[in-house]
Specification:
Blueprint lengths: L2 H12 L11 E3 L4 E9 L11 H19 L2 E11 L3 H17 L3 E9 L4 E9 L16 E5 L4 H11 L6 H7 L5 H10 L5 E4 L4 H12 L2 E4 L11 H6 L6 E5 L1 H13 L6 E7 L3 E4 L2 E2 L11
Parallel strand pairs: 3-4, 8-11
Antiparallel strand pairs: 1-2, 2-5, 3-5, 6-9, 6-10, 7-9, 8-10, 11-12
């Protein structure tokens, strides 16, 4: 089994109170606050061979914003901790990228930490507000719900594959890997207009990972049709299992699905694409065939 899943089980069993665990964000209802933290480590999540400090910083903040968006909240504040063999040039370029993304998403950087280390390690804690929004829970998928997506699947994995052959490759896929597209308007529209509970994740660890985690939390069967999955590549393995696309994956009521798309269409925004249905039973299926879980392993370098 994936080591991360094993470690998370141990952590959950060791805590007296694990009620806040289980989603990409922790929700503090008394404050309307969604919180998430994430780490990016050199030679595990990025390489200085093909990404500049400026590009690394942009992606680091974007992937954390994505966690907040997939909860239905709006990111407001971030704390950034950075370690490694740091130089003034690295710090200058890194925070140029951080500032650019922070300005684009109206986020304030409110603190963090700097320390020496053998490799570059980035940890970002991000805080979001969900006042007047309905938040997502992985356990909310119900029989009859639509499975939908905003974004594409497999493009980032293809970009990484190309960069592993040629560090200087520069095209749609490599640029997508370095700077993923997020969907804040789609997230907000879902969170402010759904009538029934919904389940939403980002595809940080791949499409199948989304299927598995929501299926397990909701005790439901999730069945997608491969030909309906939005994609720009023909590699089935990368489409299903390739991570770091940060597309939105959502299970929602069919009436809510139609309502959301009507609003998005009127605003000339990206729309949700139906890729499957939540059905009676258990497990994850592609074209009605059961598949096994295989997600991104954060403990393989």
């Amino acid at each position: 089994m994936n080591k991360e899943i094993e470690f998370l089980k141990i952590i959950s069993n060791k805590l007296n109170d694990n009620s806040y665990l289980g989603d990409d964000c922790a929700y503090l209802g008394e404050y309307n606050l969604a919180l998430s933290t994430d780490s990016l480590v050199e030679d595990v999540h990025f390489s200085l061979l093909y990404m500049t400090p400026y590009e690394i910083a942009k992606k680091a903040l974007l992937v954390n914003i994505s966690d907040i968006l997939s909860s239905g909240a709006k990111a407001d504040y971030a704390l950034i901790s950075l370690s490694g063999d740091l130089s003034e040039d690295f710090i200058n370029d890194f925070y140029k990228g951080i500032n650019e993304i922070a300005n684009s998403y109206d986020i304030k950087i409110i603190g963090g930490d700097l320390t020496k280390g053998d490799k570059i390690s980035i940890n970002i804690t991000i805080l979001g507000d969900y006042k007047n929004r309905k938040i997502s829970k992985r356990s909310n998928a119900k029989e009859g719900y639509v499975i939908a997506a905003a974004g594409v699947f497999g493009s980032s994995a293809m970009g990484l594959k190309q960069l592993s052959y040629n560090n200087n490759e520069n095209n749609y896929f490599t640029n997508f890997h370095k700077c993923p597209k997020l969907y804040p308007i789609v997230s907000k529209t879902i969170a402010t207009n759904t009538q029934k509970p919904y389940a939403m994740m980002d595809s940080s660890d791949g499409l199948v990972d989304c299927l598995y985690k929501i299926s397990k939390a909701s005790n439901a069967k999730l069945n997608v049709q491969y030909n309906l999955i939005p994609k720009k590549i023909y590699d089935r393995d990368l489409v299903l299992y390739g991570g770091e696309d940060y597309s939105l994956f959502v299970c929602l009521d069919s009436e809510d699905f139609r309502r959301i798309n009507k609003i998005l269409k009127a605003q000339n925004e990206d729309m949700l694409i139906q890729i499957g249905t939540v059905e009676k039973g258990k497990g994850i299926f592609v074209d009605n065939e059961k598949i096994e879980y295989k997600g991104f392993n954060h403990f393989v370098c």
